[in-house]
Amino acid sequence: MDVAPEITQRAAQPYAGISTWVTWAAVGSVADRIPELFGWLGTRGITPAGPPFFRYLVIDMERQLLVEAGVPVALAIANDDQIRAGTLPAGRFAVMTHTGAPETLVAANSALLDWAQARGLAWDVSHTDEGEKWGCRLENYLTDPAEQPDTSKWQTELAFRLAD
């Protein structure tokens, strides 16, 4: 896999999301929550400020992952019982855009991790009893499936925050 990442500075970004603990086998079920999130925003007249994303908060491939389906918003919003409001952190990120079906994202993630390791770059990640806790590890879904049914043409931006 050809990897052409770059290091960019990203500003802090308010967002709305739904966090869920899942096993690796069920991580795809998090995508089922995105329509719920868009519905919540729509009933409040809030327009997304960017594409939807998955944010991997805690990763333990042997047990569970804490994954968030989210969407950027222009202004900070308040939490409620259904939706978590937050701010994606500012900082330096290793970023690459991957074109391909969702099942090829595992290889793309591995390629980005290998690219950074080969350059001596450290991630914003800590090791806890729950697993690896990431400062910000995003999969930004740039392609709307309703507009592009061919999954081999879907574009996903991977943006992983680097350690300070």
Q: Short summary of the structure?
A:
The protein is mainly beta and 164 residues long.
Structural description of this entry:
This protein is mainly beta and 164 residues long. It has one domain (6-161): Multidrug-efflux Transporter 1 Regulator Bmrr, Chain A (Alpha-Beta Barrel), CATH 3.20.80.10. It contains two helices and ten strands. It has helices at 34-43, 105-118, and strands at residues 6-10, 13-22, 53-59, 65-72, 84-88, 91-99, 125-128, 131-134, 137-141, 155-161. Strands 1, 2, 3, 4, 5, 6, 7, 8, 9 and 10 form a ten-stranded antiparallel sheet that branches. A hairpin with a 5-residue loop joins strand 3 and strand 4. The longest helix is centred in the last third of the chain and has 14 residues, at 105-118. The radius of gyration is 15 Å and the shape is globular. The model has no long low-confidence stretch (mean pLDDT 91).
